[in-house]
Amino acid sequence: MPGNKEKHFLVIKVIEAPEPGQPVTHVELEAIYTRRVTILAWRELEDASVWRRGWQ
Predict the structure, then answer these.
(1) For the segment 5-14, what is each residue's pLDDT rounded down to a tens digit?
(2) Could you read off the pLDDT of 24-36 as tens digits, one per residue?
(3) What phi, psi does 7 have (nearest 5°)?
(4) Most CB contacts within 10 A, which of 29, 33, 39, 47?
(5) What HEC string does 8-49 produce?
(6) Model-level pTM?
C-alpha cells in the first residue's frame, strides 16, 4: 500500500457505515511528506500483506 518511500501517515478521517450504529468501515490516511490521501478499509491495517506496522 505505501509507495514512493512513504513511511509516516495520519488518519485524517474515520468513515462510518451509512446506517447509524454500525461500525467504522474505512479510514482516510494522509502521507506526511507527500500529502497523498488514500482511503483504506481499516481491517487492512491489520493485514501484513497490505500494510506494515511500525518502523520496518
Answers:
(1) 788 899 999 9
(2) 999 999 999 899 9
(3) -130, -20
(4) 29
(5) CEEEEEEEECCCCCCCEEEEEEEECCCCCEEEEEHHHHHCCC
(6) 0.77
